[in-house]
Design goal:
8 helices, mainly alpha
């Protein structure tokens, strides 16, 4: 009888505690941030890197398998249309930089143009993160960005959460530059959580 109880105890699957599961997810976010940073090194590939990272984290939260190979396969699929999105992002950043220079030069109307430019850039970054968070192979970036732009406006609470995540990345890079790399995964996780929250409303 005692032997059968012992066998039943060893045969029963051991459940992970909530704390252990959350810590594992946090560690996965940090690892995903490293993958995103490596995939973003060509500079134009950051939308595809975030899309692949977000999909990896979605798999992880759904308790599905997946690792570096799946991330890389998703990255290659997302980079096809993502290069133009990456280029558009750098062009927008350059335009805002010119606006800020105009403000500093004291050009009439410069402050208003500068504020509008910075807000538009923040909105575009949030929409890009939201689009990357729901990307799946076969999706077009144009359709994803259009829908994400609408969600950015219709769900201001979720958008502000992502702005807070971006602020954490900027502060991390400002104080200790290497910290910004793993935190990228946390931003991708925040985008996935914001999109899931919007979907369940």
């Amino acid at each position: 009888m005692a032997q059968s109880r012992a066998r039943a105890r060893t045969a029963a699957p051991r459940e992970e505690s909530v704390l252990a599961e959350r810590f594992a997810l946090f560690a996965e976010c940090l690892l995903t941030g490293l993958w995103i940073a490596l995939a973003s090194l060509p500079l134009l590939t950051y939308p595809a890197a975030f899309a692949a990272g977000s999909r990896h984290l979605r798999r992880r939260t759904a308790h599905e398998g997946g690792g570096w190979r799946e991330f890389w396969a998703d990255f290659r699929a997302a980079v096809r249309g993502g290069l133009l999105v990456g280029l558009a992002g750098w062009v927008a950043l350059a335009a805002v930089w010119v606006d800020v220079r105009a403000v500093r030069a004291g050009i009439p109307g410069g402050p208003l143009v500068g504020v509008v430019g910075v807000l538009a850039l923040i909105g575009a970054v949030v929409a890009g993160l939201r689009a990357a968070a729901v990307w799946r192979p076969g999706d077009t970036w144009r359709a994803l960005l259009g829908a994400a732009g609408r969600r950015t406006v219709l769900d201001p609470a979720g958008s502000f959460l992502l702005v807070g995540g971006l602020a954490v990345v900027v502060c991390s890079a400002w104080f200790v530059a290497p910290l910004a790399i793993p935190v990228l995964g946390a931003v991708a996780a925040a985008a996935v959580a914001v999109e899931e929250r919007y979907r369940r409303r």
